[in-house]
Structure formats: structure tokens, C-alpha cells
TrEMBL record:
<dbReference type="GO" id="GO:0005829">
    <property type="term" value="C:cytosol"/>
</dbReference>
<dbReference type="InterPro" id="IPR016192">
    <property type="entry name" value="APOBEC/CMP_deaminase_Zn-bd"/>
</dbReference>
<dbReference type="GO" id="GO:0008270">
    <property type="term" value="F:zinc ion binding"/>
</dbReference>
<dbReference type="GO" id="GO:0042802">
    <property type="term" value="F:identical protein binding"/>
</dbReference>
<feature type="binding site">
    <location>
        <position position="94"/>
    </location>
    <ligand>
        <name>Zn(2+)</name>
    </ligand>
</feature>
<feature type="binding site">
    <location>
        <begin position="47"/>
        <end position="53"/>
    </location>
    <ligand>
        <name>substrate</name>
    </ligand>
</feature>
<keyword id="KW-0378">Hydrolase</keyword>
<dbReference type="InterPro" id="IPR050202">
    <property type="entry name" value="Cyt/Deoxycyt_deaminase"/>
</dbReference>
<dbReference type="GO" id="GO:0004126">
    <property type="term" value="F:cytidine deaminase activity"/>
</dbReference>
<dbReference type="InterPro" id="IPR006262">
    <property type="entry name" value="Cyt_deam_tetra"/>
</dbReference>
<feature type="binding site">
    <location>
        <position position="58"/>
    </location>
    <ligand>
        <name>Zn(2+)</name>
    </ligand>
</feature>
<feature type="active site" description="Proton donor">
    <location>
        <position position="60"/>
    </location>
</feature>
<comment type="function">
    <text>This enzyme scavenges exogenous and endogenous cytidine and 2'-deoxycytidine for UMP synthesis.</text>
</comment>
<feature type="domain" description="CMP/dCMP-type deaminase">
    <location>
        <begin position="6"/>
        <end position="136"/>
    </location>
</feature>
<dbReference type="InterPro" id="IPR016193">
    <property type="entry name" value="Cytidine_deaminase-like"/>
</dbReference>
<protein>
    <recommendedName>
        <fullName>Cytidine deaminase</fullName>
        <ecNumber>3.5.4.5</ecNumber>
    </recommendedName>
</protein>
<dbReference type="GO" id="GO:0055086">
    <property type="term" value="P:nucleobase-containing small molecule metabolic process"/>
</dbReference>
Length: 140
């Protein structure tokens, strides 16, 4: 986990293609996300904003929707890409998306945070969302 490009290359390329399709006329902040599913397939999504601002959807949520529609039910890894080349700020998933990812990922699932130029930093899900509440909390 964490080595640049080689093992994550296809995932990062898919996040870059998705970022190019983003609908972000209000924030002008395009984001792409690409999930590696258990099947080995990649499911991508982009942010989709709305004139009624709170109704906008994050790229990660769009990618999860694509994953579910395709029949995958677990996230092996995800790449999220946003921001500008040369800007070191990390486009980490928002709080709501951390919880959305939690539903389908494991504590050690890698989250590759990228800029247009490529990988910036890799986190484990449990670094971004410690002490999380998940499906296992509902097992009685
Ligand atoms: O990880 C992130 C962070 C932000 N956004 C979107 C939401 C909104 O459309 C825009 C600015 O917040 O970026 C994402 O899709 N994913
Ligand atoms: Zn989000």
C-alpha cells in the first residue's frame, strides 16, 4: 500500500477520466472517484452539483452508486482526485463520504488521495474515520 502509480495506475487513470466529467458549475471544484470492486472491475463517479446547493452529490457517492448498480458489494481500494496540479492540498473524502465508504470497505482499505498529476497520499479508512459505526453494530 502506498507505492505510487504501478498498482494504482488504472484506478488513478479512471479517477482522472471521471474528474473530467464532473458537473461543478457552482464550486468549480471538479472531483473524480474510482473504486476497485471485489470483482476486479473499476467503478467511477464524479461530483454532480445542483442549483439547490445542498442537493449536490460527491464523486465518492456517485462511484458507490455505479458500484452497486454493477453488482459489486465491497470496496478493495478507492482513488479520489480533485484540485489543481501543483496544489498540495489534499482532496480527502468529506465526513459524509467517509461514512458512505465505511459501509462497503474494511478498516485497512486504501484511500488514494490524488491531484491531477497523480497520487499525493494514501490513507487507510480507519485513519480517516476512527471508531466508526458500521453494519456490524447492527448485528444482534
Ligand atoms: O472528496 C470530495 C470533496 C469535495 N467534493 C465535491 C463536493 C462539491 O461538489 C465540490 C466542492 O466541495 O467538491 C467531492 O465530490 N469529494
Ligand atoms: Zn463527500
Amino acid at each position: 500500500m502506498g507505492e505510487p502509480t504501478e498498482s494504482h495506475g488504472a484506478l488513478i487513470a479512471a479517477a482522472r477520466d471521471a474528474m473530467a466529467q464532473a458537473y461543478a458549475p457552482y464550486s468549480h471544484f471538479s472531483v473524480g472517484a474510482a473504486i476497485l470492486g471485489a470483482s476486479g472491475r473499476i467503478h467511477a463517479g464524479a461530483n454532480v452539483e445542483n442549483a439547490a446547493y445542498p442537493q449536490g452529490q460527491c464523486a465518492e457517492a456517485s462511484a458507490i452508486g455505479a458500484m452497486i448498480l454493477a453488482g459489486d458489494r465491497s470496496i478493495q481500494a478507492i482513488a479520489v482526485m480533485g484540485g489543481q496540479t501543483g496544489d498540495g492540498r489534499l482532496c480527502t473524502p468529506c465526513g459524509g463520504c467517509r461514512q458512505r465508504l465505511r459501509e462497503f470497505a474494511r478498516p485497512d482499505t486504501p484511500i488514494h488521495v490524488c491531484g491531477p498529476e497523480g497520487l499525493r497520499q494514501t490513507f487507510r479508512l480507519d485513519e480517516l474515520l476512527p471508531h466508526s459505526f458500521g453494519p456490524d453494530n447492527l448485528d444482534f
